[in-house]
Amino acid sequence: MNQRRIYAALVGSLLLAGPAVAQNRVVIDKVTSREASAKNDVTVSGVEVVNTNLSSDEVTKLLSADTPNDQLLALALKMTADSLKIGGVTVQGEMSKVLVGPFEASSVDKGRFARAMLSDFSVNYTEKGQPTGGVLTGRKLDMKRGNLGPFLAALQSGKFESASFQVGDVAWDGFDGSFTDSQTPADAPGGNQVKVSLRGLTASTEYAGDTPVSSKGEASGFTFAPAPASELGKGLRSFGYERLELGVSGAGRYEPASQRLVLQDYTITSPSAGRLSLSGEVSGVDPAALASGDATRRGMALLGASVEGLKLNFVNEGLVEKSFTFAADKQGKTPAALRSEVSAMAGQLLPLFLAGDPQSLPLAQSVQTFLTTPKNFTLTLKARGAPVPLARLGTIRDPMTFLALVNVTLVANQ
């Protein structure tokens, strides 16, 4: 099934809500079809649509893989319904099988929906002529206050650069997956399976028209475990880790009247490694930098913004020690000797690199304090006077010019 058709079919399932134009109920036991170019057999079962403006034939076309793209998208943009229920979807290919569990949508109107819930899904695939493959199993996904209209319109026009959609609230119970590392033998110690998982994800966004004005989210328990005998697996173990474990969270707000963007503690955490957080303020942010579906337009609008200040905080929970142990082993030194050497170099080279700027000595001292006892540090960048335009920052080629525009402070172990 080609990518455009997959997008359209999934979106068609979501776009079922809102005040229905016609009052009727469509019940379809099963829709079977075949997407010829990809050689996929598609079965959609247990369909019930309440108070929809589409006829039974039109609902069938919307859920059929052999419906031409232009017709499918037109139906998706037309549809309204109070509710939609789908018992399940099966996509059977030559080397893959996709199962989508019960799906429900409510109060959707021509691209908008009040709520859409998918209970689960699974993807199984094999590689032609190879004893390799993989499986991905997803758990419950719940979305509220969505608008996929611009996304559908972009698919219809072929202008993918303008594709965008809004979802107010997302709650996902995550996924588990594994796939074969074809470069690692199956009988290697620990096997040749790469495993990935996500424990959960939540996000909430408020909009003023097309512009997001506040958002917060968290993705927890992401794990990536390479095959133990693979090069990546051996590399990770030499660094002191069996797998990569990450969590991400953050919040932000945008003030349209003042065109000010505030980033609030965007944080990456990793057990036995540490926590890295970023916060800051940016002024002169045109709404197009956040609302436009065109990546080029967003980038151009963002270039007109200016940075007021940024703060970077790092809390060490083992990453520094493991880094020195790894590097010292490569150089044939002890971790303590290498740490002492790097600390001495920082004290000598930072003032030299910064050409004796008054900020250089406190910076060097803080770096040495952190390296001696690596607990935490906070790096603060604040514009001297007026906010610094992003376009101006991109032209800076030497540290002295940067320090003339930005005040830099580093505080360690406080």
In short:
The chain has 414 residues and is of the alpha+beta class. It is built from 12 helices and 21 strands. A hairpin with a 4-residue loop joins β1 (25-35) and β2.
Please report the number of helical segments: 12
Proportion in β-strands: 35-45%
Largest sheet: 12 strands, antiparallel, barrel
Query: Helical residue percent?
Result: 25-40%
End-to-end span in angstroms? Answer: 56 Å
Number of strands: 21
Write out the strand line-up for the largest beta sheet, numbering strands in chain order: 3-4-7-8-11-12-14-13-10-9-6-5
What would you call the quaternary organization? single chain
Instruction: List segments where confidence is low: pLDDT < 50 over at least 5 consecutive residues.
Output: 1-11, 13-22
Structure description:
- This protein is of the alpha+beta class and 414 residues long.
- The protein has helices at residues 3-14, 56-62, 69-78, 149-157, 231-239, 288-291, 295-303, 319-331, 335-353, 360-372, 390-393, 399-405, and strands at 25-35, 40-50, 80-92, 96-100, 103-109, 112-118, 121-126, 133-138, 141-147, 166-172, 175-180, 193-198, 200-208, 211-225, 244-255, 260-270, 274-283, 306-316, 376-383, 388-389, 406-412.
- Strands 3-4-7-8-11-12-14-13-10-9-6-5 form a 12-stranded antiparallel β-barrel.
- A hairpin with a 2-residue loop joins strand 13 and strand 14 (211-225).
